[in-house]
Amino acid sequence: MKFVDSATIHVSAGNGGHGCISFRREKFIPKGGPDGGDGGDGGNVWIISDLNMNSLTDYRIKKIFCAENGKNGSNANSSGKKGKDVLIRVPLGTRILNVDTNTIVADIQDKNQKILIAKGGWHGLGNSRFKSSTNQSPRKNTKGSLGEYKIILLELILIADVGTLGLPNSGKSTLTSSLSNAKTKIDYYPFSTLNPILGTVKIKKRKFIIADIPGIIKGASSGVGLGIKFLKHLSRCRLLLHIVDTTTIKKKNINKIIFIILKELKNFDELLSKIPRWLIFNKIDILTKKKINKIMMYMTKKIQNNQKYYFISAKNNIGTKKLSKDIIKYLYKK
Predict the structure, then answer these.
(1) Which positions fall inside the Obg domain (predicted)?
(2) What confidence category does residue 9 fall into, taking pLDDT thresholds of 50, 70 and 90?
């Protein structure tokens, strides 16, 4: 099923029911008073979080949501029935924007979070409401007001503690599946990951959620490749793991390879580039010890600002256990 992380929908709350003009008519009571009842309120449109959803696929086709109108009042002071509400279910991490005002209405991040997105119209008043000492037989009522209508943009931004990023074939998916319960597609060709994947890592009583997004290539911020489309899903992360394929680097191009990703992050969102980022040098099982030592010596001299880095093999689980423990320590000390 295609992963959908944005959708535009139209929501209409119900109109309020009209008040009734009626007079009491009973046998032997020729001059009964007013008994017109009020109308019912229009139904509301709500957005509620749903833990069982992980995409906005449901809204690829269904885009119009209308709550029920309130019923009109009737005689015998009978009020009209309130219109039924409409519930729109969305996954955690969904941001709601009003398209007309370009403002953020809400950010769904909590279990069972419920947001009123369009309020139903107010009920009209029946003529019994207008009876007074000077007007015993009012022929006045009010109409129900219109319900709100809005065009809403639903934008899913995955909730993850840790995000992975790197060039295609750097081993992001292998690392994600090695650390967590995520079932990612792993292959030897670039862009085997086409959609973001979430996995949960548990160590004793502590856990974190890790996100795997498609690989980023040079020029991604200008529309090249797939990764830039999903970079927004890293914006909620507290830590980024920058995966580097050690088999593709040489002593003189290490910084160049690292800088490609950093540049794309800055071009996409300056704030995203400021999230703490650890360098993860992957596939050391393929390298000789001599080459690993050369890279480590180079990194020790060149890396500044206390940049944290690891040498691992995600495929053979070399160094991944320590990485997981360090991530837990980092996240839980915050």
Answers:
(1) 1-159
(2) very high
| Domain harbouring 179, CATH code | 3.40.50.300
Q: For residue 197, give its domain range.
A: 162-333
Report the 10 Å Cβ neighbour count for 333.
6
What pairing do the DSSP bridges indicate for beta strands 239-245 and 277-282? parallel
Say how far residue 312 (Cα) sits from the centre of its chain: 32
pTM beyond 0.70: the answer is yes
Binding-site residues for Mg(2+), in ranges, read: 173, 193
Binding site for GTP, by residue number, is: 166-173, 191-195, 212-215, 282-285, 313-315
Let me know: does 247 contact 171? Beta carbons within 8 Å: no
**Burial grade of 12 (CB within 10 A; 0-12, 13-18, 19 or more):** buried
Q: Cite the annotated binding site by residue number.
A: 166-173, 191-195, 212-215, 282-285, 313-315
Q: Are residues 86 and 235 in the same domain?
A: no
